[in-house]
Specification:
Elements (H helix, E strand, L loop, with lengths): L10 E7 L23 H21 L3 E7 L14 E4 L3 E4 L13 H10 L4 E4 L12 H4 E4 L4 E5 L6 H11 L2 E5 L16 E3 L3 E4 L7 H12 L4 E4 L2 H5 L6 E5 L2 E7 H6 L2 H8 L3 E5 L16 E3 L8
Parallel strand pairs: 1-2, 4-5, 7-8, 10-11, 13-14
Antiparallel strand pairs: 1-15, 3-4, 6-7, 9-10, 12-13
């Protein structure tokens, strides 16, 4: 097992929320989102804060660099998911994205971008957020799942993924767009692509049955496996338990796959063994965060940039 892969970043950006709560603006099209009537708002916020803290500690113990930022605002309930408003790319490129819900647009923050410029070689920052004024959304690595090795961007159609915006991004960042229709067992569109698939260096987790067109399903399977990746097919139930919402990272002892404890429990023994052939499993306990309809992968914005010497 090698420690470096262009697919698996060595560092992530995380946001620790002080006033977390499931976002009422996003629950209409996010069927993964849940309400908890058993705890007070303060108890939920405090537990979310603790879960982010503990997740970061486990990532750092595995040798992953964590750039942690605090969010003390009460107006940004989904700030714990920074991967939706920016992404970073080899060669020093950063993208800022247009967000679907108005209160999610408040999550963009200049201090994160300034940190990246200070600690890493950033050549340019391309800002697509102006597309919000035209009603176009493209929510970062929630909307798109990148194969950094083959330069492919996979995206399921939804309110959060506009094809015009995606074509523009892919032209600028040299990705081949592969767009498809995906739905859950009840036929509802899946709001973000990264809840149904994760592309690793030597494997891909994907809920193939969520892809509604059989021909497209076969094409995507072929493209994912063309570099020798092992395809780990996830059931609808496993998708509901966030088993597809994972991120491969490079730690001090090799690659790790970060995902939630709930996702870990949902995988079969055979599926875990398939992953462990190339990455160590790193389950994180984030049940309160998952009330918001996202999980561990959503909590981390991978840093695919070259560090500055001594930074």
């Amino acid at each position: 097992m090698t420690s470096f892969s262009v697919q698996a970043p060595k560092a992530v950006v995380m946001i620790r929320p002080h006033h977390f709560y499931p976002n009422p603006e996003t629950e209409q099209d996010n069927v993964f989102q849940k309400r908890d009537g058993t705890r007070t708002a303060q108890a939920i916020a405090e537990q979310a804060y603790a879960e982010v803290t503990q997740a970061a500690e486990k990532l750092e113990a595995a040798g992953v660099v964590v750039h942690m930022f605090e969010d003390e605002s009460r107006k940004t309930p989904d700030s714990v998911f920074p991967n939706n408003w920016f992404s970073t790319h080899a060669g020093g490129h950063v993208a800022l994205y247009p967000m679907f819900s108005p209160n999610r647009r408040l999550e963009r923050r200049s201090d994160v971008i300034e940190m990246l410029k200070h600690n890493y070689r950033v050549q340019d920052v391309i800002d697509y957020s102006g597309l919000e004024q035209d009603g176009l959304s493209l929510e970062g690595t929630g909307a798109m799942v990148f194969d950094h090795i083959s330069r492919i961007a996979y995206a399921a159609k939804s309110n959060r993924t506009n094809e015009v915006a995606m074509e523009r991004f892919c032209t600028h960042f040299n990705f081949e767009p592969i767009v498809f229709d995906a739905a859950d067992e009840a036929g509802q569109l899946i709001y973000h692509t990264n809840v149904l698939m994760c592309v690793g260096t030597d494997f891909a987790l994907i809920g193939l049955d969520t892809i509604t067109n059989p021909r497209r399903r076969a094409e995507i399977r072929d493209r994912l496996s063309e570099n020798g990746r092992e395809i780990i097919d996830l059931s609808f139930s496993q998708i509901n338990d966030f088993s597809g919402n994972a991120l491969e990272l490079s730690g001090s002892q090799g690659r790790v796959l970060a995902f939630s404890r709930r996702a870990f429990r949902a995988l079969s023994v055979e599926q875990k063994r398939a992953i462990e052939r190339s990455a160590t499993l790193l389950p994180l306990e984030v049940p309160t965060i998952e009330l918001a309809g996202g999980s561990v992968r959503c909590m981390m914005a991978g840093v695919h940039l070259t560090p500055r010497p001594g930074a």
